[in-house]
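Fill in residues.
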């Protein structure tokens, strides 16, 4: 089983780690191009790529995945990381709450060898470190997971300012940031995608995923309002993927009070 220790080695200060990447000649796998909206990064979901009307996550954007806990935001973010890696890009996950599960990431197609996982102490530090990564121009796609992150006194105003600076840095550098966590939305986000569960996906009695509706509620570089229905699979479902898509059937959404916690595998 893959552990976070495997993901995090070697443990180095972030500036030293970035310098190490530079010294090994690692550069962007996908050229940002002359325009921010050009050469978008794939979301991993063709339907969402079309709904965004920019062909994917637009370069230079800070995008909010707006979903309740268990609503599929983490699964969608992991799928985007995997798609970016497949296109030759470098990716990172900032994880102040310690929620990142490397085993699930692997099963959803992420290569841990080319994933940088950073564990900041609190959300404000996470945003600052995301800025370091954006300025390095080495990272194509970073995920900033602020859901359930430990707060810091007076951090709300600092967080807002930090997100604004991060959005500016991403815009100049041509990277993409995905923001997870309700209540941390900022005017800085140029793209917002709301996720609403339509049904569970089940094989027999086992829940193996969920069907969600993704709505583009804000888009700085294209027309908002696009919608797409997405099938998001739980991590362990990837092992029976050849059978899963044909065998899984939609099931009515289970009321929150009846939902077994064990079934909520994707945060």
């Amino acid at each position: 089983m893959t552990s976070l220790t495997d993901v995090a080695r070697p443990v180095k200060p972030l500036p030293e780690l970035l310098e190490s990447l530079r010294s090994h000649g690692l550069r962007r796998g996908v050229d940002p191009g002359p325009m921010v909206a050009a050469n978008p990064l794939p979301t991993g979901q063709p339907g969402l790529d079309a709904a965004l009307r920019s062909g994917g996550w637009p370069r230079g954007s800070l995008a909010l995945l707006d979903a309740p806990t268990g609503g599929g935001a983490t699964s969608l973010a992991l799928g985007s990381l995997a798609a970016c890696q497949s296109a030759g890009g470098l990716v990172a996950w900032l994880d102040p709450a310690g929620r990142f599960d490397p085993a699930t990431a692997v099963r959803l197609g992420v290569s841990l060898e080319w994933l940088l996982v950073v564990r900041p102490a609190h959300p404000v530090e996470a945003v600052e470190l995301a800025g370091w990564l954006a300025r390095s121009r080495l990272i194509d796609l970073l995920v900033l997971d602020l859901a359930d992150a430990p707060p810091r006194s007076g951090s709300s105003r600092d967080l807002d300012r930090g997100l604004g600076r991060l959005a500016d840095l991403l815009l100049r550098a041509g990277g993409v940031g995905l923001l997870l966590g309700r209540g941390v939305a900022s005017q800085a986000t140029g793209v917002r995608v709301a996720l609403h569960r339509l049904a569970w996906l089940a094989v027999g009695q086992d829940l193996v995923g969920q069907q969600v509706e993704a709505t583009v509620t804000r888009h700085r570089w294209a027309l908002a309002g696009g919608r797409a229905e997405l099938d998001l699979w739980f991590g362990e479902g990837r092992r029976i993927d050849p059978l899963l898509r044909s065998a899984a059937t939609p099931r009515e959404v289970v009321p929150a009070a009846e939902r077994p916690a064990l079934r909520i595998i994707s945060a």
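The mean pLDDT is 81.
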